[in-house]
Design brief:
39% helix
Amino acid sequence: MNVFLRGLFMRLFWLFSRLRQGRGVESQFSALEAEVPSSPPLLDAMAFALTDVQDPWPFVIPLGQRIGIIVVGAGGTGSWLIPHLARLVYEFNRKEEHIVEKRSASLLIVDHDIVEEKNVKARQNFCPPEIGYPKAQVLSNRMALAFAMNREEISARVASFDTSMVRQYPADSIFLVGCVDTVSARSELARCLTFNSSRARITYIDGGNGSDWGQIFIGNTATVDELKGCLRDPICARLPSPALLAPSMFVVPKEEKVEATTVKLSCGDLMVDSQEGNRQSRTINNHMASLMYAYVERLIYGSITTFATWTNLAPIDTHSSCITPQALAIALGKEASFASFFTLSPDEADDEDDEDSDPDDDEILAAELEEALP
């Protein structure tokens, strides 16, 4: 009870302090709300996160003997995230005591771009002598040399990402980490979750950011229907795909004071562009890399209790949505009554389908799923 009251007090104190400063959640993310039509559910989820005091469900990944981490995108965020993950793989393979069975981890870096002068100026994790070389290979070579890692532990693919890279990757459990800034790349990443069967083998962590704000979403389930009863047990094993959770991440958001003709700039372009409003924060990519790494590390060594994180460096503010039925329903843009969908038992779900099934309702649900999926 003391823990409950302390958590409630901290959340209310935080909300009160934000309101006193005139920086409510809606004002912090007003640019996102104005520019991305599908963002209102996210704003509702952010607001609900401040007052959600229900105990969260822990989300646990059933790890196999071979753990694979695939990072797609070695630019602004990816170039800072990869060293963290390389050290994680190194320590997991050499220092971790595998009591039950011997386990191993590996890291694959995927990016088709080469290092350019603008990347160095943009403070990506590259230096002048590396200009002209493939980003993925540069980072792979650097980390392999630093930690004496072999090709089975760390490798690179200098190519655009496609789903076959996941299908063919030799791992029992895969963490697919997206650090991309194009709609097509994100759609391809989200499509990989359709490969999951009854046991969710692939977990997709997606990070996206603007000039000084960012968002991280994590999930392993491609359709809403597959989430039925996901919170029935004490441990959650399924979370909605980022594509379902936040369709807005498939739309490049327009920053405040940025013309529509320039919103498709890459991280490197944002840093070196001189137009007012385009310049990216010096620390947003490092900050996003640390948050994304925390999700991967927590899942490998334990569990997580949040499925979405928002951060804004203008007021230096970060908060997350906990894994609760109400929070999931709100984030998916559903009514509050939809929360019971996540706690249904298989028998209750079958009975409800038999009693409430309606052809028109089925058509509406199918249309919603088709619209939400990439």
